[in-house]
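User: Predict Epidermal patterning factor-like protein's structure from this.
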Amino acid sequence: MEMCPTGSSLPDCSHACGPCFPCKRVMVSFACSIAESCPIVYRCMCRGKYYHVP
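Assistant:
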């Protein structure tokens, strides 16, 4: 029987930034009012530029 992990896992940014190196995973939060929860997303970053997580 093959084991499959359940739940979410952290994104892999190893190929997300194309030829740019080093490509690192960062958390980005958005500004929102006090009454609502602020979403946090992962992006890949290289030399100050954000790339979408594959």
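The longest strand covers residues 40-46.
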